[in-house]
Amino acid sequence: MMPNELKIVRDEGEGISHDSSLTAGALAWHAQVLEGLLRHLSSSPDGLAGAEAAIRLAKAGRNELREAKGIQPFRIFLRQFSGLLVWILIAAGVISGVFGDWLDCGAIVAILVLNAVVGFYQELSAEKSVAALKRMAAPNARVRRDGQVVTLPASDVVVGDVLELEPGDLVAADARVIEAASLRCNESFLTGESNAVTKNVAQLDLETPLAERENMLFMGSSIVAGVGRAVVVATGMSTEIGRIAGLVESAAEQGTPLQKRLESLGRSLVWVALGIVVLLFTLGWARGLDLLSLFMTVVSLAVAAVPEGLPTIVTIALALGVMRMSRRQVLVRRLAAVETLGSTTVICTDKTGTLTIGEMTVRELQVAGCNFQVTGEGYGPHGEVLLQGQAVKAQYAGPLLEMANVLIGCNNAHVVLNDGRWELSGDPTEGALLAAGHKAGGNKEHLERNFPRHHEIPFDSDRKRRTVLRLMPDGRLRGLVNGAPDLLLGRCCNILTGDGVRPLTDTDRHFIADENNAMAGRGLRVLGSAYRDLPVQSGAVLTAEEVERDLVFVGLAGMYDPPRPEAKAAVAECHGAGIRVVMITGDHPRTALAIARELGIASAETEVMAGTELQRFSDGELADRIPSLAVFARVTAEHKLRIVRAWKGIGAVVAMTGDGVNDAAALKGADIGIAMGRSGTEVTKQASDMIITDDNFTSIVAAVEEGRGIYANIRKTLQYLLATNTGELLLMALCLILGLPMPLLPIHLLWINLVTDGLPALSLATGPLERGLLRRPPRPATERMADRSFLFTVALTGMSTGLTSLATYAWALRAGSGDLARTYAFATIVLGQLLCAFSFLSEVQPVWRLKTGTNRRLCLTILGTLSMQIFLFHSTVAAHFFKTSPLSWRACLGLALVSLIPLAVLEIAKMVRVATTGKSQYSIVAVT
Ligand code: ADP
Ligand code: MG
Questions:
Q1: 3-class secondary structure per residue, 432-495
Q2: What phi, psi does 523 have (nearest 5°)?
Q3: Is the Cβ–Cβ distance between 515 and 372 less than 8 Å?
Q4: Residue 95 CB neighbours (<10 A)
Q5: HSE of 869 in the Cβ direction (CA atoms, 13 Å)?
Q6: Which positions are annotated as active-site residues?
Q7: Per residue in 865-902, pLDDT tens?
Q8: How far is CA 796 from CA 500, 733, 751, 843, 881, in A?
Q9: Would you say the CB of residue 430 lies under 6 angstroms from ligand 1?
Q10: pLDDT tier for residue 405 given thresholds of 50, 70 and 90
């Protein structure tokens, strides 16, 4: 890259004489002679061979920091016995054992074990999937293998690998710098020094303290500026950060706000349940019921009344949803983001590569006052430069060649011919420039040979330009600059014309600005090219400011990057879902508007604001204007942050995309920071809440849909659990009040709680997404999960299941046997609740319009649960335990019909609700 920056000091035989100093943890990497160090590591500036790296990886293990606290199954198992309810249950078991009621005691023990096993299994799989998610979003590293630069998971990096570094990269392991050009690095987490440190290749004294080891890079630090190469000397737990224990532990994930809220809800429900239970106990006591069986009943009721499995079910719902999202190109880094996604009201998105395809082709060149057409597709060098359809005359060959030299000479893209296709590695913008340069007569190999690269001032989206310094044959330096034309023009004072270089006049400036605007208005992304011959020799120290001024303007290149065909539909979907789409781009306002028009994001110029204009507004003024704006152009990272803040200031929930290092602040500031998987830097990814692996806008919309769906599923689950528990409480309470014997035995309650409530709830939580999620307005972020309609449904379900089973119970009691009546009650409540689960599948769609595929898992669960129930009624052993009597077919049929009543009631209520609130909330949905 920068051969003249690479100073390999001859190994004088010192420094590396005793190998043990290298391996025995002396860690004197910074004090070694570089060449000797490379030899010791059996590496070279060109990196390792892939095969060798694989051997090293197998030997040394992955480059990972061991988590202080991994998954501990035994702990998870113990945790199953920790809740208050479980203790009550254990006490109940002991008491019934003491009083010699072995049947109850055995049943309770069985239930306890079953409960623990199910809970253990659920929690273990939840933790496993969360851990898997963490791995998926792990950082990458760019490494030289077999002489090629490849991108790998950082965990695959081995000692001896050569890292390629540029701004925004995270350093994947501890490494010694072997090349550095203005390389600056932030290692505050290690040294406490918040300013970036400049790195170089010089050999250092053995005593140099860690913070001053300027030739070393440490795992986890980030590259702030410049480019470089470094050879890995330590990985995983042998790195500096790996040696600092404890730091890793702090990375432990906290529960999401929803999880925390539900947990505290669970805790308050425990007290509510205990209150009710104490009340019932007193009531039963006053009626003179048998105290022991009364006690057992209320304890089981308490256990049944509290949805203690909820937190685990929520974790599973979140984790599964997140897995599903990963199949839709969305990696979630913070679980809490999933909840926020569902209430997103504004998506601020990048243009290039996200709304557009991101495959660019230069269509027009503006050189020496003429507009040339460029033919040929793709990144290959084949194509022509034409002037009004004709071959270019000789007089233009000179300026075109100069243009080509800037396009190619200031360019980090590489293309290789693979199976007849030119494949690009690098920035698509630069790939397009490279191809155009060749079509205009340039030649990369020739250029690299005759004008070697000396230094680079990298591109970033705030500077909007890149400069490469090349060494001319006469020993002087030439700076080649590509960048945003409107900004570049201000730095030019000369212009290259058909007759050579002359001063730039105002007429020239206007002409160029007009041409730029016209090209941008045609939807082209326009870059300007310029150069400057520096009056100094190669040894001098120069700042970027000194290089990038008094430039000679050469020309414009206009490239076409078509909108993604699917993006238009996705934008329309957002609008239907009540979500604003805002385009934020570093590109020219006209280019931005042209693309925004095609996608339906904006229609008028008044909806566009340029960064320079934004700068003039105060925060207050911006907040006033912001709802009417749909496109922000020529922005910097700082503007992005202001846009996020302005939207948030007026109560919006904002998702914001970013790719550059500087975007990290805006991503942190947004409610949901979205990093780009392909174009995004590692630092941006680390600052994000989620990563879109294909950089595609459609995936953001998919994520919103999933977010809504996951929330809806959790809500349904909570609703179902509370509703069924209410039913059981009501049945028992009414019987106590009416002076009837207890309809459900403790074992019935425990069974219902675990099996017939628990399993359908689990499938509701993990079921597929409801249809029409993107046809409703976003859920207000402040909305409580248990709103009016939620509580109404809970009460309605509880009442209808409770009352129908009370009715069958009372009817059978009058006819005679207590056992038979209990069986009636048991069957009715179980069946009623199971059937109700179908109604919970959708808040708006009637049951008969749900496709059978909508929730196959729920259907299967219910079938399974039902057969268990039937088996329970038919097996003599189970009948002994559950004290049930056999049912006749007629009775079965009758009970089944009665059990349909709660479902019917719920469906009627649903229809009424949709009809009354239809206009505002559900009308669009109900159409499907
Ligand atoms: P966006 O991704 O929103 O299109 P960028 O930040 O990538 O915006 O680019 C902003 C501007 O910077 C572009 O309009 C272009 O003028 C300039 N630019 C982009 N890429 C390069 C590059 N590789 N070299 C020089 N200039 C560039
Ligand atoms: Mg970009």
A1: HHHHHHHHCCCCHHHHHHHCCEEEEECCCCCCCEEEEEEECCCCEEEEEEEECHHHHHCCEEEE
A2: 80, 10
A3: no
A4: 17
A5: 28
A6: 350
A7: 888 888 887 788 878 878 888 888 888 899 999 999 99
A8: 86, 16, 23, 14, 32
A9: yes
A10: very high
Which residues are 471's β-sheet partners?
Answer: 477
Tell how strand 690-692 and strand 672-676 pair up: parallel
259 vs 273, 390, 840, CA distance in Å? 21, 68, 21
In this prediction, residue 918 carries a pLDDT of 57
Is the distance from CB of 149 to CB of 142 less than 8 angstroms? yes
Q: What is the pLDDT of residue 303?
A: 74
The answer, yes or no, to whether any atom of ligand 1 lies below 6 A from the CB of 461, is yes
Q: How far is the CA of 558 from the centre of ligand 2 (A)?
A: 15
CB–CB of 593/361 below 8 Å? no
Amino acid at 664: A
For 870-882, b/e burial (b = at least 16 CB within 10 A) is eebbeeeeebebb
What's the sign of the alpha-carbon dihedral 171, 175, 178, 181? positive
Q: Indicate the SS3 state at residue 590.
A: helix
Output the CA torsion sign for 725, 730, 731, 735.
positive
For residues 57 and 159, give the distance between their C-alpha atoms in angstroms, rounded to a whole number. Answer: 9
| Residue-level pLDDT at 806 | 96
Regarding the beta carbon of 350 and ligand 1, being less than 6 Å apart is answered yes
Q: How far is the CA of 437 from the centre of ligand 1 (A)?
A: 18
Would you place residue 13 in the very low, low, confident or very high pLDDT band (cuts 50, 70, 90)?
Answer: very low
Q: In whole angstroms, what is the distance from residue 391 CA to residue 397 CA?
A: 11
Q: What angle do CA 513, 514, 520 make, to 5 degrees?
A: 90
109-135: burial string, b at 16+ Cβ within 10 Å, e else: bebbeebbebbbebbbebbebbeebee
Query: Ligand 2 mean position to 461 CA, how many Å?
Result: 7
